[in-house]
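sorry to bug you again but im stuck and you know this stuff better than me. below you get a single protein, a line of residues and a line of whole numbers that encode the local backbone shape. mainly i need to know what kind of three dimensional shape the backbone takes. anything you notice is useful, everything is just below:

***
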Amino acid sequence: MNKPLAGTLLALTLLGAGAAPAVAAEPAEPAEPAVDVKAVDFAGTVALSNCSGSVVKAPGSQPTDPALVLSNGHCIESGFPEPGEVVLNQASTRSFGLLNSGGTRVATLRASKIAYATMTDTDVSLYQLTSTYAQIESRYGIKALELNAAHPVQGTAIKVVSGYWKRIYSCNVDGFAYLLKEGSWTWKDSVRYTSSCNTIGGTSGSPVIDNATGKVVAVNNTGNEDGGRCTDNNPCEVDANGNVTVRPGINYAQQTYTLVPCIGAGSRIDLSRPGCALPKP
């Protein structure tokens, strides 16, 4: 996984990870196939104590709904969820540093609970905040990022926006892994980046944004660091026939369109809603 950084003794024990990698120089961006329609910046992204994230909303969310923060399941403060484990409506007072378009921290937002988190089939967490979308916009002039309700498309130009590092990676959707296996965890239909999104520790939970729409299509979560085969920090791809492919240095994200059907009125996560296929407790 793109390892959490601060306060991660548990994570380091679980993954056997060493010190977090130093920030590397940003590589030159490849030419993109089309001119961006939406400017992608840091507005709406957040910095966690150990990861990145973003304030997000579903297409049907209302201004008076409690705001949601999207990150990874492996970034929650209680430690990595076990395979098959689902966290639902767990009390939390976690804080998030809200960034403006230039990457300046303008506010501290506070959670009321972990609305949903898992590392089964996907690697996602949704925190419900004590502030509404309208309050965040009126106080800080920052709108939530919208979750795209459709499956992303191969070849799409994307940006991975890390609130932790205040750094933006540019690449394309290279394709999709039928299964992505890393240690004890298995994720389905993962987004594979082209090589220029060389994300590092602390970028976990970053929103993956479609350049053309400005909408969130995935959440950054892992990459093959050392060429290992299906081990911690070295995920492998498994196709429908069981064939294994290892792509050293390639990074991945988990799609987020699957979250949309599960977000009901008042930002409530309702796993019984029509179309919601997220793992249940």
User: Anything to note?
Assistant: Helices lie at 9-15, 133-140.
